[in-house]
Specification:
The protein is mostly beta strands. The protein has one domain. Helices cover about 0% and strands about 30% of the residues. Strands 1-5-4-3-2 form a five-stranded antiparallel sheet, with no helix packed on it. It starts with a strand and ends in a 38-residue tail after the last strand.
Length: about 100
C-alpha cells in the first residue's frame, strides 16, 4: 500500500540529489519510472507515467509536511486489504481513465 500526491510534471522540481530510477511495466502494459533515494532506498516519486501522462506521483512519506495533504480519491481498491478502511472519497478499482 502506498499514498501518493499527483503533481503536474511542469510544477515538479527536485531540490537536491539525484534519485535512482527503475523502469517498471504495470499490469496494463504501460510503463513508468519508480525513483528511489540512492542512499536509503526509499521510494520518492513515480515519473514517465504512460498511463497518467504529464504527472508525477510523489510519495506522501517523502514530504516535509504530509499532514497538509487530504485524500481526493482512492485507486486500486480491488487490491485493498480486508483490514484497511475505505475512505469517504471517490473509489476506483484500477487507474481512473
Amino acid at each position: 500500500m502506498a499514498t501518493f500526491l499527483s503533481v503536474p510534471e511542469d510544477d515538479f522540481q527536485m531540490l537536491s540529489g539525484r534519485p535512482k530510477s527503475f523502469h517498471y511495466t504495470a499490469d496494463t502494459g504501460k510503463g513508468l519510472d519508480r525513483n528511489f533515494c540512492p542512499e536509503c532506498g526509499s521510494r520518492l516519486f513515480t515519473s514517465n507515467l504512460e498511463g497518467f501522462p504529464g504527472n508525477i506521483l510523489v510519495t506522501i512519506g517523502s514530504l516535509d509536511r504530509p499532514e497538509l495533504i487530504e485524500p481526493k480519491l482512492e485507486m486500486f481498491t480491488k487490491r485493498r486489504l480486508q483490514w484497511a478502511k475505505k475512505l469517504d472519497v471517490p473509489q476506483f478499482e484500477a487507474m481512473p481513465s
